[in-house]
Design a protein that fits this description.
Blueprint lengths: L1 E2 L3 E8 L6 H10 L9 E8 L2 E8 L10 H4 L2 E2 L2 E2 L40 E5 L7 E7 L3 H6 L11 E11 L11 E8 L14 H15 L10 E11 L4 H7 L5 H20 L8 E9 L11 E5 L8 E11 L4 E9 L8 H27 L5
Parallel strand pairs: 10-11
Antiparallel strand pairs: 1-2, 2-3, 3-4, 5-6, 7-8, 8-9, 9-11, 12-13, 12-14, 14-15
Helix pairs in contact: 4-6
Protein name: 3' exoribonuclease
Keywords: Cytoplasm, Exosome, Nucleus, RNA-binding, rRNA processing
GO molecular function: RNA binding
Length: 379
């Protein structure tokens, strides 16, 4: 076939490739027979005085079949499929999560005095890899200890651990800071409460971190470590009490006050163990306004202020106050008040804050005694 003005073109179709002039010329040069090729179309054309050749492969009548194991084809009535080695298969049968029997919480009256606080255990240097660390445990209420033998529900005290990493130099990408950069992180352990906690922090844990950062920022002498940072990480190993009972009574929000007080106290002990200079030893204290008459919360005779409150020991908690106090300097670095105060007494807010300061002073004496006992003997 000839193209007008553009040269000539020769087309070979089918299995006649071996009989084409090009195949014969190649075979003549090599001194052998033309090589058998697959079916297709071979075109040769001349364009602008030059010879060009193209080849198009056509599918054969019997295409190659892929392995049956890759396609999942049934062979001998058995389905063969590729195994997924990265998938963790569960049990073949269905399983149901265990359902525990719910028991009504046994509310026990408060056996401590109104100005009495619970004892605590403190130990420093529990994490050798950290710059400073401290472990603190607060005993459960006395009434709950006595009722454990008669009840299946168990109320434990609060357990916290704090680690301090630093001071250490900031990364090069961080902006210049002439002061020490403080970073606080408060997290519940997944097994700390009855309801399992998630991996990510919720709003309550972020609030605790903000309050802890405010309490420690006014204590650390930050200008002694320019271009440095320190991380304070507090992990709540066990909650203060049964969260289900507090949730049923509507007192779950008051538990955060005791948790924040413990976080402030254990973080101060960890900072002292790390050797970071502070203006004073800061400790937390909690006081609450409780009412013995749950029906009438405005009764002035039924209102009282107690230190270190526990939700299961009181019928109704109206307000609570948590402070971070410096005893030697008589200063407050953080103040958190929640609840509704009675309008009958305008000085009730001041009284509540004064009792919280009294609770922090009691914790300060206990922490100072523990730190002195943990010091190595002088040579």
């Amino acid at each position: 076939m000839h193209l007008s003005g553009y040269g000539s073109r020769t087309t070979v179709v089918g299995n006649d490739l071996e009989n084409s002039p090009q195949a014969s010329s190649r075979a003549a040069k090599k001194g052998s027979q033309p090589r058998q090729t697959t079916s297709g179309i071979h075109q040769t054309y001349t364009y602008c005085g030059k010879s060009h050749s193209t080849r198009l492969i056509l599918p054969t009548n019997k295409p190659n079949k892929p392995p049956s194991s890759l396609l999942g084809i049934k062979k001998n009535r058995v389905s063969i499929k590729m195994a997924d080695r990265r998938r963790i298969n569960g049990p073949p049968g269905t399983t149901l999560p265990p359902v525990y029997e719910t028991t009504d919480p046994i509310a026990t009256p408060r056996e401590r005095l109104a100005n009495g606080i619970r004892g605590l255990f403190l130990k420093t240097g529990v994490t050798p890899t950290a710059s400073g660390s401290a472990y603190m445990e607060i005993e459960p209420p006395l009434g709950q200890i006595k009722s454990q033998a008669a009840s299946q529900s168990k109320t434990n005290g609060m357990k916290l651990i704090c680690t301090v990493h630093g001071p250490r130099s900031l990364p090069r990408s961080a902006p210049f800071s002439p002061y020490l950069v403080l970073s606080t992180h408060v997290k519940y352990a997944p097994f700390a409460t009855r309801r399992r906690r998630g991996y990510l922090r919720d709003s309550s844990e972020r609030d605790l971190s903000v309050h802890l950062d405010t309490a420690l920022r006014g204590v650390i002498i930050a200008d002694r470590w320019p271009k440095s940072g320190v991380d304070v990480i507090v992990t709540i190993i066990e909650g203060d009490q049964e969260r289900e009972a507090s949730h049923s009574q509507g007192n779950e929000e008051w538990d955060m006050m005791n948790v924040l007080s413990g976080c402030i106290t254990v973080a101060a002990a960890a900072l002292a163990d790390a050797g970071i200079d502070c203006v004073d030893m800061v400790t937390g204290g909690v006081a609450a306004l409780v009412s013995s008459n749950e029906q009438d919360t405005t009764d002035a005779d039924a209102l009282s202020i107690v230190l270190d409150p526990v939700s299961l020991e009181h019928d109704k908690i109206l307000a609570a106050c948590c402070v971070a106090y410096l005893p030697c300097r008589a200063e407050i670095t953080n103040l958190w008040v929640k609840g509704q105060l009675s309008p009958l007494d305008p000085l009730l807010h001041t009284k509540l804050m004064g009792r919280a300061i009294q609770a922090s002073k009691g914790n300060y004496r206990a922490v100072l005694e523990r730190l002195e006992s943990n010091q190595p003997p002088s040579s």
